[in-house]
Amino acid sequence: MKKCIITVVGKDTVGIIAKVCTYLAENNINILDISQTIVQGYFNMMMVTDVSKAEKEFGTVAEELEVIGEEIGVTIRCQRAEIFEKMHRL
Amino acid sequence: MINIYEVTETNQMISQENLDVRTITLGISLMDCIDSDLEKLNEKIYNKITTIAKDLVPTGQAIEKEFGIPIVNKRISITPISLIGAAACKSPADFVTIAKTLDKAAHTVGVNFIGGYSALVSKGMTPAEENLIRSIPEALAVTERVCSSVNVGSTKTGINMDAVKLCGEIVKEAAEATKDRDSLGCAKLVIFCNAPDDNPFMAGAFLGVTEADAVINVGVSGPGVVKHAIEQVRGKGFEELCETIKKTAFKITRVGQLVAGEASKRLGIPFGIIDLSLAPTPAVGDSIAEILEEIGLERVGAPGTTAALAMLNDQVKKGGVMASSYVGGLSGAFIPVSEDQGMIDAVSVGALTLEKLEAMTCVCSVGLDMIAIPGKTKASTISGIIADEMAIGMVNQKTTAVRLIPVIGKDVGEVAEFGGLLGYAPIIPVNEFDCSAFVNRKGRIPAPIHSFKN
């Protein structure tokens, strides 16, 4: 399994999760977990996903998600999970 | 499983606190390129570098994208050219042809610096090493990306004062040769004591002769992250302050370790070391001086600066060594003046002097770095400053270095502009009392005794 963390940060609006989930479904990316919170007045969502069955290259997925973020006025990042695991777990 | 707060913390470090991996440096041994025919030698060097390093930049960019962490520089370090060129180069001009080849190779593979136009002369100089050193001013003037270094002393050998004298003259000549660009050549020349074989940072990087054919060394950074972390413990005791710095250094270094491991795997080149360094940039908030000020100094340079820096440097190492199995290079807080906005400001208001900077180098890596001095400074005075800094390294068994820029045509009160990561610097006054009789003595300063530590 190739785990990847998708984060969405920005002003809350209708349909953010829907848009992201639709894209993930179209690209065969499975969602393992979703959590959401408000940090300093900003909408903050994190998805743990499995990209091992995705056909597109990782970089392409990250770029396309970034574009979707720009369309709805939020910042969407897609990063390999290891960077967080390495930094926060012994 | 990782939670949302941890993810947010990491991403905030990257997006707001300038967390980055400062450099992936690919070390390439050129030992197998040695040839007595200069043309063949140049051809072999170009071919080896452009073959081994051809995927370095794209691989770095792919890692950046996948992990969402900027990797600011991709660079190359090579075996000291004084050794590689010894059989073929009969004059300084011959060595300059190699510098041009290195510059061409750096452009071809897309790295922004290539380090190793170097000579290791801590005890004595061969004719080839002397020729290389004499070729440095021209080599740095006619190339863009080549970096040069000279190791003139070590704890085991003492200080080669003949080389120190020569290097003072070479620094001055390098300044003259690039006077149309605020003596930029000197920003690419480092004079070392106890130079490490595996340093990934420029301008002093080279690949030592004890190293493998190719190796990946990574330099981490993150002064902004440390500053932000210690803002949360303002007014608290030293125990909490130290704990905070250690934890932050650990996190920063883990990212470096991850990137180093990935780069090594993808390029099929063994991982060497992580250099645990706090390396500033001219960007606001990416400054060592600001960390020291956050610790409690009105300005860097105030009394207490050396103690605060000693503590910072030690905590960074303590946190960092836990995060990586192989630590090396220079490993410590860097205090380059022109590359750190807080240091620039402190010099401008008169809080920070050359003498205080020298004291600071006793407790951190690496030395008198990126300091602009008046262009009229005598070569013998520059040699004297080099000798002082080398003595600190020799006696304290640490790496020290000097990267001074005598800005030709400018004096105290004026500013030298280097551009990009090299920044800009107000010109700092230099003690003008003469030391030429000291510098002109021949021979070397003997290695120090390691008992009776006082």
Q: What does the secondary structure layout of this molecule look like, with pairings?
A:
The complex is a heterodimer of chains A (90) and B (454).
Chain A: E1 3-10, H1 16-26, E2 30-39, E3 42-50, H2 58-72, E4 74-80, H3 82-88
Chain B: H1 4-16, E1 21-28, H2 38-52, H3 56-67, E2 71-78, H4 81-84, H5 92-109, E3 114-120, H6 127-142, E4 146-154, E5 158-160, H7 161-177, E6 189-193, E7 214-220, H8 223-231, H9 238-267, E8 271-275, H10 288-295, H11 305-323, H12 341-348, H13 354-360, E9 367-374, H14 379-396, E10 400-407, E11 415-417, E12 424-426, H15 436-439, E13 444-445
Parallel strand pairs in B: 1-2, 2-3, 3-4, 4-6, 7-8, 9-10
Antiparallel strand pairs in B: 1-7, 4-5, 5-13, 6-10, 11-12
Helix pairs in contact in B: 2-5, 3-9, 5-6, 6-7, 7-14, 8-9, 8-10, 9-11
Helix content of chain B: 40-55%
Radius of gyration of chain A: 13 Å
Order of helices and strands of chain B: HEHHEHHEHEEHEEHHEHHHHEHEEEHE
Q: What coarse outline of chain A follows from CA principal-axis ratios?
A: globular
Helix count from the secondary structure assignment of chain A:
3
The parts of chain A where pLDDT drops under 50 for at least 5 residues are: none
Beta-strand segment tally of chain A: 4
CATH superfamily annotation of chain A:
ACT domain
The succession of helices and strands of chain A, N to C, reads EHEEHEH
Portion of residues in beta strands of chain A equals 35-45%
Mean pLDDT over the residues of chain B: 94
Task: Give me the secondary-structure category of chain A.
Answer: alpha+beta
Largest beta-sheet characterization of chain A: 4 strands, antiparallel
Radius of gyration of chain B: 21 Å
Rounded mean pLDDT score of chain A? 90
Strand content of chain B: 15-25%
Strands side by side in the biggest sheet of chain A: 2-3-1-4
For the termini of chain B, the CA-CA separation is 52 Å
Query: How far apart are the first and last residues' alpha carbons of chain A, in Å?
Result: 21 Å
Contiguous low-pLDDT stretches of chain B (5 residues minimum) are none
